[in-house]
Amino acid sequence: MSQSEFDLARLLARLDALGDSARDADGVLSRLALSEQDRAGRDLLAGWLRAAGLEVAIDAIGNIFGIWRGEIDAAPLMLGSHIDSVVDAGIYDGCYGVLAGLGVIEALQRNGFEPVFPLVVAAFTNEEGNRYAPDMMGSLVHAGGLALERALATVGSDGTLLGDELRRIGYAGDLPPGAIRPCAYLELHIEQGPMLEHDGIRIGAVENLQGISWQEITIRGVANHAGTTPTRLRCDAGLAAARVATFLRDEIAAGSATTVATVGKLRLHPDVINVIPSRAVLTVDLRDPDAEIFARAEARLAEFLEWLAARDGVEIDCRRLARFEPVNFDPGLVAAVDAAATARGYSCRRMTSGAGHDAQMLARICPAAMIFVPSRDGISHNPREHTAPDDLAAGAAVLLDVTRKLASGSAD
Ligand code: HGY
Ligand code: MN
Ligand code: MN
User: Fold this and answer.
1) Percent of the chain that is helix, strand, coil (3-state, to 5)
2) Which residue ranges have their beta carbon within 6 Å of ligand 1?
3) In this structure, is residue 412 part of a structural domain?
4) Which residues pair with 371 in a beta bridge?
5) By the 8 A CB rule, do 96 and 392 touch?
6) Minimum-distance ligand to the CA of 126?
7) Among residues 97, 127, 296, 381, which is most buried (max CB within 10 A)?
8) Ligand nearest to the CA of residue 129, numbered in listed order
9) Which of 128, 131, 361 to mutate to test the pocket of ligand 1 (most atoms within 8 A of CB)?
10) Are residues 122 and 173 in the same domain?
11) Ligand 1 atom nearest to 129, measured from its CA
12) What is the pLDDT of residues 52-106, one digit of tens each?
């Protein structure tokens, strides 16, 4: 089957249209979960799903499902990802997997394919966790890992209540979360890292995904005059925060080939030039694919914070925002991805996902796997995010082949 069965031009047009629907007057793309931009993107997607003749179902956490009924009413094969984005994002993260999933269903329909059991394309709520933590929230609720009431009661970084915002944008659906329990889940996604491009490989068959730990750390010191306070008498929350960042880089990450650590948010108070900061609020994102190394890194950070509080005379409190253990994907599905890529003559390698994805939550309730395509310069979570159209088409072709095989119920 030629790659051309998949309508690449329509995918590219939809990626641009979805991206543009979330741009501000300066062209900056941000589609934070449950924002006005998210409502616009959801409306656009729901329209495309309906135009493809799919039944659109929305669940109580706002997950969107496009359903193509099969001959028998059995557990569906689910394709999906997310359309919410980080701040100042690119157009591919998440959106590529949702729109390619829709494109696969449209290609199968065009070719007169009759699915034995239903096919579903999903867009999960709040995968990025930028406004409401944790990330992968919609798929976590879907998989039963977070109670709906707890999710709806989440207070955002902007002080809003998740449930209120979900209702306000009109996506508080009736479907109970988890009502659509897939027989398998496939997620096509950009790699968001440098490996495939560096190795000149077209397709990544993702075997596992690393552990993710998110914490918000509040450090309390004493505000004082920047000019009159001798160094030895300072109780400097800003300095302590800086020591956390350098400890993570110079001790934790430097001492491991696989652990990565990021201070992504840092706010000082009162945040003026001539006052020693009395408070620092920072976030720590810590990750490793190995469960033991992951846990040890977290423990070392906790020890360091205790030592730092005593050394600098500051108070330190930690708030857990998210913690997900490393996940292994279904070996049979991963092999199917590998075989489909190879059958098309695409180079393919097994790999670990550095990023979190909805697939890691679906893996709790059904066999799940991911297909990666290269990211130019390994860039993502950045407006420069880009994947060559040929690579987008190759990923979609592999998704189409694996979907057709699984949906026709053929075992081999
Ligand atoms: O943080 C992540 O890895 C994902 O983009 N939510
Ligand atoms: Mn993503
Ligand atoms: Mn992302």
Assistant:
1) 35, 25, 40
2) 127-129, 135, 355-356
3) no
4) 188, 205
5) yes
6) 1
7) 97
8) 1
9) 128
10) yes
11) 6
12) 999 999 999 999 999 999 888 899 999 999 999 999 999 999 999 999 999 999 9
